[in-house]
Amino acid sequence: MRPTQYNKRLTIQTPTETTTGTGGKAVTYTDSYTCWANVKPVKGRKRLEYGRIEYNYIYEVEMRSRTTNPDTDNKVKYKDNLYAITTISIEDDIVQMDIAR
After folding, report:
1. How remote is the C-alpha of 42 from its chain's centroid?
2. What is the Cα–Cα distance from 101 to 86, expressed in whole angstroms?
3. CA 62 to CA 8: how far, in whole Å?
4. 54: domain range?
5. Domains: count for the chain
6. Residue 63: exposed, middle, or buried by beta-carbon count in 10 A (0-12, 13-18, 19+)?
7. Rounded to two decimals, what is the model's pTM?
8. CATH, residue 12
9. Highest mean pLDDT among 9-13, 15-19, 38-42
């Protein structure tokens, strides 16, 4: 993937644990930052593997590294939908991850 193809907007959300009125705990996600990324649908054998886990929408994402990179606890908002980060790899200045819902 080339950096010139970073043409999709993503919002990385971080989990925040709050206490409910009954004393329980609830996890909510708040926007951490928005960035440009290259987003492509997963195809082929990788798509079949994720299909077995019952994910309907799976994307490969590439973005530039930041001082606070996402991890698997974060969520990704893309096209007004929330996605879980299933895999993540950070090499040099590039973050590559798979997101699914």
Report:
1. 14
2. 10
3. 10
4. 3-100
5. 1
6. buried
7. 0.83
8. 2.40.10.270
9. 9-13
Of 66, 68, 72, 65, the closest CA to residue 87 belongs to 72
Query: 89 and 70 in contact (C-beta within 8 Å)?
Result: no
Structure tokens at 55: 């994910």
The token pair that represents 97 in the structure block: 């991850």
Q: Is 2 helix (H, G, I), strand (E, B) or coil?
A: coil
Angle at 27 between CA 9 and CA 98, to 5 degrees: 40
Angstrom distance (rounded) from CA 97 to CA 63? 9
pLDDT of res. 4: 64
CA distance 94 to 23: 41
